[in-house]
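quick one, 144 residues, struct below
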Amino acid sequence: MLLEMVTIWSDPKARLILTGNFLLVVGAGITFMAVPWLLIQRSNGNSILGYSNAAVTLLILFLLPYFGKIVDRYSRKRVVLVYLGSAVIVDALIVAVILGQGSTETWELLTVFCFGSLGGSVYYPAQFALSQEVIAPDRYDSLS
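---
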């Protein structure tokens, strides 16, 4: 197992994919743990989080066919980069607003939470398809 990891790490494309995945997982872990925790600390936070999560889940359910078309029709690399770039921009704007105000508002937390949920529904299929395009088939098991 370790030898396979060392072998896959020597591939520059795989190294970029693995590094990107690591950073995304850390960011998603923070987002999907910290944001709900901050929301439920507010008055009616449980209800707000529950209703917004239900709404985003339904929205994703209805948009999944469209997301699949995006992944199939456009360059997977472009889809991944557009999502990551837009995520950085949205997060930077929200952070700037929070720093400017000195506190967080519910809409800011919901924006980050909902954008992360919607974006992940496009990002992960595009990233997995991109991995299959750029990595040799005999290395799929190592990358997985």
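The two ends are 12 Å apart (CA to CA).
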